[in-house]
Write a structure and sequence with these properties.
18% strand, 20 helices, 22 strands
Length: 602
C-alpha cells in the first residue's frame, strides 16, 4: 500500500493535484493556509495569494469559466468577504469544476468568531461535503469537483480546525473515479454569465431545479452511510464529531453524513425509524438537528451538547452522561497534560517591532482602533494599547466613524483617534477604508505596521514583499507611493525602534488637522536570526526592581532572583533577560531609567 501520514490540509492539496486542478487562489488564513502552501509545490500548477478572499474567489471563477478545474480556499470569516461573488455564482453556475474549501474554526483558536459556515451552503443552495479525516478530505476533493461539473455549480468542502491540522493515514494513489475533462476554453453565454435582472430571473429557477437533483445524489452518496449496531441509541453526526462519537459510543448505531447539503432526508427518516432514541452530535449550531426537527422527527442534540467551542471526546461523553445514556461515574478518558491548567498566553515575539510602537502609542492616551494581525496581541497586559478589533480592514473605517461622531456630536474628548493596521491587512481591505477617510476629509491618524510579510498566519508573501506564493520575483507595492496616489500628502516612514522619534512623530500627526499616515518600517523578527552581539543583559547591582522593562511584555524578560539591598533590611527582585531568546532590539535598554541594561559583553 502506498500510504503516507498527512494532515487534512496536505490531503486536500494532494487530492486537488491528483484530480487535475491547475489553478488555485486564496488569501492566507488559519486553519486553511497550508493547503495552497502544499499545492503550489506540485509541478504544472499555478497558485497565488490574492490580496483578499473576494479577489481570490473571482480569480477562481474566471479560471473555472474556461473549463479548468480550480481550487479556492479560505478560513470561515474569509468566506464573508467572498460572499458577494458566491451568491451570484450560485445563479450563473460554472463550466469547469470549482471546489471552494472553507475551514471553520470552532473554539476560535485563531479567529475573532466561530461562525458555522454550513449555513452558507444552504444560503447559496450549493452542495457541501464534510470530511471526518484526512483520507476523506482527499477523496472529497475529486467528488466535489465531479459534483461541480455535473451539476453546473461550485461545491463547498467544509473543513474544521481539527480536520485541517490532525494527521491520518492517506492512500497516495489517485482515485481515478473519472477522467479529467479536457478544458474547452471560454465560451460566450450572455444569459448565463451576465447577471442583469432579466437574465438572473431566468437562472433562479434553474438553481431550485439543481437543488432537487442534488437531493437525490445526497441520498445515494457513499459519504452518507448507516453503521447499524445497537438500535437503542442512534446518532447522526458529521465531520470531526463522527470520530468522537465512534470513540465514546462504539456500540451505538450511527448515520455518518459526509454530504450535508442537501441533507439526505429519506436516509435520515429510514435511520430514525430503526432506532429507539435519536441524537445529533454536531459542533456549533444545530444545523442538522433543526433540519431533522423540521421533518417532524423526535430528535435530541443541543440540550446535551454545547453550541459553544469545539467538541472533544470529553464534551461528547459529558453530553451522553447528561442524557442518561452513559453512567455518571465514568473515569476520565485521558489524563491532563502537564501544564494544561496553566496555558501559555499568546505574546508578541521577542524583538517584535510592534511592541515598541504600541508601548510608545500608550503614551498618547489615544483611542486606538486595531486590525487583524500579530499586533492585535497588544490588547493583552502589560501593553493593553488598543480599544477595538473587529475584522480585516475595519480599523481605519471605525476610527473615521469615531472621529466624525465626536466632532459632529460635540463630544468633549481630548483623546486623539488612531487606526493601526498591518501591511498585508492594508492590502487586503484597508486601502478602500483609507480612501474613504481621504475622500471624506477625515481627521484620523493611520499607522501602517509594515513588517514585510504576512506574519500572523506563518510568514506568507503579499503584494508588498516582492515575491509570489511560488517564490517568483514580482513588483513590490510601495505603500507610500500608493497612499500619495490616493490623494494623501501627509505620509511618512518611521522606525518603531526609535522610540523618541516615534513619539515625536505621533504628537506631530495629532497636531495636524486632516488624514495622516505613518508607516513603521521594520521587518518581522522571524525573518532573521538573533544577533549574538546585540543580546542585552541586566546588571543586578544597578537594577532597582522598578519593573519598567516588564511593562514591555517581552517574553525574554522576567524577574530574576531575590537579593538583599546594601543595608540588608529590604529585598528586591532584579530583572533577568534570557540570552537564548533575546533578539537585541534594545527597547528594554531604552525604557530603563537606571541604565541597568546593556549589550552583553563577549
Amino acid at each position: 500500500m502506498n500510504n503516507h501520514i498527512l494532515s487534512g490540509n496536505e490531503a486536500v492539496a494532494l487530492g486537488a493535484y491528483q484530480a487535475g486542478v491547475k489553478v488555485a487562489s486564496a488569501y492566507p488564513g488559519t486553519p486553511s493556509t497550508e493547503i495552497l502552501q502544499n499545492f503550489c509545490t506540485y509541478d504544472g500548477v499555478y497558485a497565488e495569494w490574492a490580496p483578499n478572499e473576494k479577489v481570490a474567489l473571482e480569480v477562481a471563477i474566471g479560471s473555472a469559466m474556461t473549463g479548468v478545474r480550480t481550487l479556492f480556499t479560505t478560513k470561515h470569516v474569509g468566506l464573508n468577504v467572498a460572499a458577494d461573488p458566491l451568491m451570484t455564482l450560485a445563479y450563473t453556475g460554472i463550466p469547469g469544476g470549482l471546489l471552494m474549501v472553507c475551514a471553520d474554526d470552532p473554539g476560535m483558536h485563531s479567529s475573532q468568531n466561530e461562525q458555522d459556515n454550513r449555513f452558507y451552503a444552504r444560503f447559496a443552495q450549493i452542495p457541501m461535503l464534510e470530511p471526518s479525516d484526512s483520507q476523506e478530505a482527499k477523496d472529497m476533493v475529486e467528488a466535489g469537483l465531479l459534483l461541480s461539473e455535473q451539476y453546473d455549480t461550485p461545491t463547498l468542502l467544509r473543513m474544521t480546525t481539527r480536520v485541517c491540522h490532525s494527521k491520518g493515514i492517506v492512500s497516495m494513489d489517485a482515485a481515478n473515479q473519472a477522467p479529467v475533462p479536457k478544458p474547452e476554453g471560454f465560451k460566450r453565454d450572455l444569459k448565463k454569465f451576465v447577471m442583469i435582472p432579466a437574465f438572473a430571473k431566468l437562472r433562479h429557477p434553474l438553481v431550485l431545479e439543481r437543488e432537487e437533483k442534488l437531493k437525490a445524489i445526497s441520498e445515494k452518496s457513499p459519504f452518507n452511510r448507516m453503521e447499524m449496531k445497537d438500535t437503542q441509541i442512534g446518532i447522526i453526526t458529521s465531520g470531526i464529531s463522527y470520530q468522537y462519537v465512534k470513540e465514546i459510543m462504539p456500540e451505538a448505531s450511527v448515520l455518518k453524513l459526509g454530504m450535508t447539503f442537501p441533507l439526505p432526508t429519506t436516509l435520515i427518516r429510514e435511520f430514525a425509524g430503526k432506532v429507539d432514541r435519536l441524537f445529533v452530535v454536531e459542533e456549533l449550531e444545530p444545523y442538522i438537528e433543526d433540519a431533522i426537527r423540521i421533518m417532524g422527527l423526535p430528535v435530541e442534540g443541543k440540550t446535551f451538547f454545547p453550541r459553544l467551542d469545539e467538541l472533544s471526546p470529553d464534551t461528547v461523553t459529558a453530553g451522553f452522561v447528561k442524557a442518561g445514556v452513559l453512567p455518571s461515574d465514568l473515569p476520565p478518558l485521558r489524563e491532563k497534560a502537564p501544564g494544561s491548567d496553566m496555558p501559555r498566553p499568546p505574546l508578541l515575539c521577542s524583538g517584535c517591532p510592534h511592541r515598541a510602537l504600541f508601548y510608545t502609542l500608550n503614551k498618547m492616551k489615544a483611542i486606538v482602533h486595531s486590525d487583524i494581525g500579530c499586533y492585535t496581541l497588544s490588547v493583552l497586559p502589560p501593553l493593553q494599547s488598543i480599544e477595538t478589533t473587529l475584522c480585516m480592514g475595519a480599523s481605519i473605517s471605525m476610527a473615521h466613524g469615531t472621529a466624525k461622531a465626536m466632532e459632529k456630536a460635540g463630544i468633549d474628548d481630548a483623546r486623539p483617534v488612531f487606526a493601526a493596521i498591518g501591511d498585508s491587512t492594508f492590502f487586503h481591505s484597508g486601502i478602500t477604508s483609507l480612501l474613504d477617510v481621504i475622500y471624506n476629509k477625515g481627521n484620523v491618524n493611520v499607522i501602517i505596521l509594515d513588517n514585510r510579510i504576512t506574519a500572523m498566519t506563518g510568514g506568507q508573501q503579499n503584494p508588498g514583499t516582492g515575491k509570489t506564493l511560488q517564490m517568483e520575483d514580482t513588483n513590490a507595492v510601495d505603500i507610500m507611493t500608493l497612499i500619495k496616489g490616493m490623494g494623501c500628502s501627509r505620509v511618512r516612514e518611521i522606525d518603531p525602534f526609535d522610540m523618541e522619534g516615534t513619539l515625536a512623530a505621533l504628537k506631530e500627526e495629532v497636531a495636524h488637522d486632516g488624514p495622516s499616515v505613518l508607516i513603521t518600517k521594520r521587518p518581522c523578527i522571524q525573518l532573521f536570526r538573533p544577533d549574538p552581539k546585540a543580546v542585552r543583559v541586566v546588571n543586578p547591582n544597578a537594577c532597582i526592581g522598578c519593573k519598567m522593562c516588564l511593562k514591555l511584555g517581552c517574553p525574554s524578560i522576567s524577574q530574576g532572583d531575590v537579593i538583599p539591598d546594601e543595608k540588608g533590611k529590604k529585598e528586591r527582585r532584579y530583572a533577568f533577560i534570557d540570552a537564548t531568546t533575546c533578539y537585541g532590539c534594545a527597547i528594554c535598554e531604552k525604557v530603563c531609567k537606571q541604565n541597568a541594561i546593556s549589550v552583553k559583553k563577549a
